[in-house]
Write a structure and sequence with these properties.
209 residues; 24% helix; alpha/beta; Rossmann fold; 8-stranded mixed β-sheet
Length: 209
Amino acid sequence: MIAIIDYDAGNIKSVEKAMAYLGQDARITRDRDEILASERVILPGVGSFGDAMGKLKEYKLDQVIYDVIDKKIPFLGICLGLQLLYESSDETPGVTGLGVLQGTINRIPDCPGLKIPHMGWNSLNIRPGATLFQGIASNSYVYFVHSYYLKARNEEEVAATTFYSTKIHASVEKDNVFACQFHPEKSSTVGLSILKNFLAVPSPVKEDK
């Protein structure tokens, strides 16, 4: 089973639909035992960094996420779900993120001719050998919706970048933690291939058949 963490964020249902399309049993849940018994866990979402962290703590999902990562269960953050993995965000100064990964979440700089939020298709510069992008050509296009972007501290964790007013770290990978600033569930066949690659990551949890 795939657990999709429910913390009242937007855009969670589209991930559930993408998983169903790929033949997966995916459940939107905030039940600790159900999440920790899942083969893979996804943290999607659209919304405010501060509000989202408040909800994760209210539902005690922050500790569940730490436990998932400690158990080496494959974990995928999408959009806001990527940003929450870091320590803080310019969107809500003073609010502490999960701190699973190191880097800064910054506002996309204003640039003549570019609109913020960034909404649309951008091409990716993919790091050779990146797990999520096996079989996917560099310069493939994916769909973004965001006003803030990641600058990861550790370049070796960056799996793909794009450029929109500035260089954006669009995807990261570290051990069993994967994350995308873009929306693979809205990125057509390329996005489905990325999700399939995530589903192929070995999990220590084996579902009873």
